[in-house]
Amino acid sequence: QVQLVESGGGLVQAGGSLRLSCAASGGTFSSYAMGWFRQAPGKEREFVARISWSTGGTYYVDSVKGRFTISRSRAKNTVYLQMNSLKPEDTAVYYCNADPPHSDYWGQGTQVTVSS
User: Fold this and answer.
1) How far is 18 from 8, CA to CA, in rounded Å?
2) CA-CA 20 to 30 A from 56: which of 29, 30, 99, 113?
């Protein structure tokens, strides 16, 4: 049974940084791309960033390019999202999942709140 557990969220001032972690267990992810997604209050969940588990190739939504960096540790089965220069509009619950996302893999997410 695949389990994805997000952590690392918190409250930060605009311009600050956070590093999110997504620990994966219960499955083999070498053939997947892994993604970070976010859902702001009153909005639909949206894609943020993707990384190929095998090659490390990455892709970002335009709004976070140059500020966020996705990475992974194959040894730890963990995907990270380094978020710098945070803006109030980055406030959301952040989730990781396979990309394209699998409906059974959504975890609880981790709350990121950026104050102005």
Assistant:
1) 7
2) 113
Of residues 7, 18, 34, 6, the one with CA closest to residue 115: 18
What pLDDT, in 10s, does the model give residues 13-68? 999 999 999 999 887 777 789 999 999 999 999 999 999 988 999 999 999 999 99
Residue with the two structure tokens 């970070």: 36
DSSP the chain: --EEEEE--EEEETT--EEEEEEEESS--TT-EEEEEEE-TTS--EEEEEEETTT--EEE-GGGTTTEEEEEETTTTEEEEEE-S--GGG-EEEEEEESSPPGGG----EEEEEE-
If one counts every other C-beta atom within 10 angstroms of the C-beta of residue 30, the result is 9
